[in-house]
Amino acid sequence: MAVMIETALEHAFSELLQVVLQQTIQTARFKTLLKRLEKTLKGVQPVFYESWTLSKVLDRPEKEITMFIDYMEKGKELVVKCPRIHFWNVCQKLLHSNKLIRLNNELLRFFQIEFHPMSTIVRTLIGVYDLADKMDQVLSAISTRDQLVYKDATLCNVPMLPELTVGLDSHLDELKRMLLNDDTQVVVVSASGGCGKTTLVKLLCHDNQIKDVFGENILYVTVSRPSSLKTIAQKLFEHYGQNHYEFQTDEEARNQLERLMWQMGSDNKLLLVLDDMWSESESIVHDLKFRIPGYKILVTSRFLFPRFNSTYELSLLNEEDARTLLCYSAFPREGIHNNVPDELVNKIVKLCKGLPLALTVVGASLCGQSLLKWKTTYKKWSEGQSILQSNTSMLLSLKSSIDELDELPIVKECFLDMGSFPEDERVAATTIMDMWVELYNLDDEGMYTSENLLELSLRNLINLVPRGKDTSELEGYCNELNVTQHDLLRELAIHLSSHEPVEERKRLFTEIFGNRFPTWWTEQITQPLNTRILSISTDETFSSIWYHLNAPKVEVVTLNIRSKKYALPYFIEKMHQLKVLSVISYGDALMSSSYVLPNLTELEIDRCYDLTELPSGFCNLVNLKKLSITNCHELDALPKGLGSLSNLEILRLSCCTKLQELPKSIEDVICDEETSYLWMNVESDLYNLKVNVVEDDRIESFMKIIQ
């Protein structure tokens, strides 16, 4: 029997090694992980030629060996599946990567008895195994809560509660009392960023007593900065299925919204929640006060609104609740912390000063860390300035979590890049990852960039949510990930990127309100800017009249535009190193631009809601490799000359519901076998599409689109 077990083990091992060697050569997918697996297997192979070592391996229960043989058989199937994992399916790629990592670790664990040549690798990958566990937690949460998350994303529905809420019971009771007071129409929950205002309001909206009063008439609007009455009205109209209202003025928006509210609140009481209002939006709240019986407004803000008398100032957590929250993030296994003394935990808790966001982020950064790391973290904090005494101090307290990324410099750079994107908005993960590929020369297939996203998510520095409502729908297509980030963390990224003089900053983030440009811009700095990343955000009143900007070293431009019509800034034509242009619009139409951008390799267009066609000038972007168009619901045609983009490798179209066909110039698609599967899903809908499959080595595993 022992001989049979030994033979079966060796046979399963040999077959797994053969498959790994084959896929490492033939497959571009998961190349790094497959090479790591190959190295492990080749290191293990000598065990079968040394009887004394093999006897040690076999000196365990027969059932355990049989189970491992079965595990290697399944591992072979896992490796064979690598070429079938689509490059655009971020979530599936992460899951598959996690399984490959776990297979590698299990091989090491099984064969590590008296296995000295691999001992260094075992020690190195022991942490990777823990990371794999965390990956499972994140991805499992994404999968199992997919439908709930989708409900959160549905316009003005009340978002779901976080998994843990602490220290809010007394606050909830007082807030309910204020809100249900017949003499009060507007209640403002005020506190600094990260104190739990949003969590408290979500808790209130899910409270049974509140549900009994307002029923289904609870409308929850996250108010981004900048905002306007028209923007809020548009969201509320869309929530009720009326998508075609266009308001010319705030007065018109107010009048139409008042009529809608009367209809919705005629038989039931109505609660409007405005989450994260800024000081300049106080007048908007006043304009939303309608004389409707039973109509209430609940506002959260970092600021006090003197115009409204009913303000509830949310205090920080007490020490007991603060400890509970930190331990929940730092010790996921029911708060058990065997190797960290209570005294040290309490000291870290005190330094967080009861701020929920700080406790959550700091706890996550210390999760799984050694006792030495806890001690050095405390020492560093205790020797510095007292934290959380002001907004600046609060940012400095969170900075410690970013300092923990010093050992992962690329991940730290990726966090700082997140300041480029607007607050309180969902950004497609592919948009962010494409930018990182160009900036940091990462792999085109997105494996390392996916790992960076996951690392930031595990540290609670970003949130990953699926785009689709059902993981079974169009697997991969609707299951791509969106990225969100707490606005305080975005401010932290901007703060950490803004220490140098403007002309020396690596990242330059700027906001334009109306047509008021920052002083440094209008004063025309004499020397050129050295920035690599330029992010410009505007409000809806911006007229697209640009001042000149001399920034020849820019590689990435992100435009977050809210004006109804807009044009690309003319100065980007002088940015000869520009590789990535991302246009995220919350207005309507992109006006035609004739700029020549010879080095642009990636173009991202998102949420241009009334965009019906792309400017034909885009066909002159001769070096364009990636073109991504998402959430452009009115787009019904692509430029006829799109096929002239001979270097185009990826054409990503998502949520462009009116687009019926590809232009005739790209009716012939040449691609490898794997990429052909992507086209098969849409081939029946595109009557003029012809897919030609060729050998991988003839096109170097890239899709080429020819005229």
Automatic annotation (TrEMBL):
<dbReference type="InterPro" id="IPR036388">
    <property type="entry name" value="WH-like_DNA-bd_sf"/>
</dbReference>
<dbReference type="InterPro" id="IPR032675">
    <property type="entry name" value="LRR_dom_sf"/>
</dbReference>
<keyword id="KW-0433">Leucine-rich repeat</keyword>
<keyword id="KW-0677">Repeat</keyword>
<dbReference type="InterPro" id="IPR042197">
    <property type="entry name" value="Apaf_helical"/>
</dbReference>
<dbReference type="Pfam" id="PF05659">
    <property type="entry name" value="RPW8"/>
</dbReference>
<dbReference type="InterPro" id="IPR008808">
    <property type="entry name" value="Powdery_mildew-R_dom"/>
</dbReference>
<dbReference type="InterPro" id="IPR002182">
    <property type="entry name" value="NB-ARC"/>
</dbReference>
<comment type="similarity">
    <text>Belongs to the disease resistance NB-LRR family.</text>
</comment>
<feature type="domain" description="RPW8">
    <location>
        <begin position="1"/>
        <end position="149"/>
    </location>
</feature>
<keyword id="KW-0611">Plant defense</keyword>
<protein>
    <submittedName>
        <fullName>Probable disease resistance protein</fullName>
    </submittedName>
</protein>
<dbReference type="InterPro" id="IPR027417">
    <property type="entry name" value="P-loop_NTPase"/>
</dbReference>
<dbReference type="Pfam" id="PF00931">
    <property type="entry name" value="NB-ARC"/>
</dbReference>
